[in-house]
Design a protein that fits this description.
4 strands, single chain, two-stranded antiparallel sheet
Length: about 160
């Protein structure tokens, strides 16, 4: 089947969601009271789960191969997002503040000295966000314009249903 990378990425997410739903059904129905009829065929679901997992691996591998030319941008994007999280977590308190020790006010003050100040953090985060936006736009363009053929059977075409359907 031929598809764009954007469609393949969405399809990959749907496959992963279906695996998660099947896994939940297996966990919930694997062991039931002996007097109850099972609501789902756990053996069949387990087979479907294994088939979908193999399909997901093949799909991820194909996506990985076709996106090799933008791999550096993908890695950079992840690192920039991590940097934003880091800089947003840095304490930037600076100057004198009432100490609030032992619940009292008064004349007790502490003085903080921030090496990297809040305005610098905010400016740097804004710069990182702009870089992220640029890279995301480039990746989105790549994803919608890049087509590839994948020769694996579509394991998603078979719905699963409760016992008796």
């Amino acid at each position: 089947m031929e598809m764009t990378l954007a469609k393949a990425l969405k399809h990959k997410n749907r496959v992963a969601q279906k695996i998660a739903r099947i896994s939940d059904d297996i966990r919930a129905n694997n062991s039931t009271l002996a007097i109850n009829d099972p609501e789902v065929d756990v053996q069949r679901l387990d087979g479907m789960r294994k088939e979908l997992t193999d399909y997901l691996v093949a799909l991820k591998t194909a996506i990985h191969r076709v996106s090799d030319s933008v791999r550096d941008k993908i890695f950079l994007l992840a690192e920039l997002k991590g940097s934003i999280g880091f800089y947003r977590s840095v304490c930037t308190q600076h100057g004198k503040r009432e100490s609030h020790r032992f619940g009292g006010g008064g004349d007790d003050f502490v003085e903080h000295k921030a090496v990297i100040r809040k305005d610098a953090v905010d400016a740097f985060v804004t710069e990182l966000e702009e870089r992220i936006d640029t890279i995301q736009e480039q990746l989105e363009e790549f994803n919608v314009t890049t087509k590839f053929k994948i020769d694996i059977p579509d394991a998603m075409s078979r719905p699963y249903a409760p016992v008796g359907d």
